[in-house]
Specification:
By secondary structure, the chain is an alpha+beta fold. It has two helices and four strands, in the order H-H-E-E-E-E. A four-stranded antiparallel β-sheet has the order 1-2-3-4, covered by helices on one side. The chain is globular, with a radius of gyration of 23 Å. The chain starts with 30 loop residues before the first helix and ends in a 17-residue tail after the last strand.
């Protein structure tokens, strides 16, 4: 009986998987042009730190390029000094609002028109004086 001979076979060379390029910040762009970046920054923050606190969320957005002067953030505690279930942060850009909601469930972001008050969030917000 003849011995089997080895045959040449092609081995598949894996091709590199393309990696998605993270969205970019557009300092002179509209809120709509920056929504994907805003959500990207906040989603990454939420994945690492969860609900966290308003000051940390604002500081992270400032580090990402957003203007602190154009931000609003809700309080970290209730009137009874209990920890809140969610924190909302907003950035005003050219008459529109990027609004992000952080909770124990996760992060959600939206693009919304500015309110008639010239603000993005309804009700009293926390002073950003740090």
């Amino acid at each position: 009986m003849p011995a089997p001979t080895a045959s040449a076979s092609r081995s598949a060379t894996p091709s590199p998987t393309p990696t998605a390029k993270p969205p970019a910040f557009h300092p002179d762009g509209t809120a709509a042009a920056n929504q994907q970046y805003f959500d990207y920054v906040n989603t990454a923050w939420n994945a690492s730190y969860g609900l966290s606190d308003g000051q940390s969320i604002v500081n992270n957005l400032v580090a990402a390029g957003f203007s602190k002067a154009d931000m609003e953030v809700t309080f970290d505690t209730t009137a009874l000094d209990l920890t809140v279930d969610s924190i909302q942060v907003a950035v005003r850009i050219k008459g529109e609002c990027l609004i992000g909601g952080f909770s124990y469930v996760g992060y959600t972001g939206i693009l919304a028109p500015m309110l008639g008050t010239g603000t993005c969030l309804v009700g009293e917000t926390r002073p950003i004086d740090w």
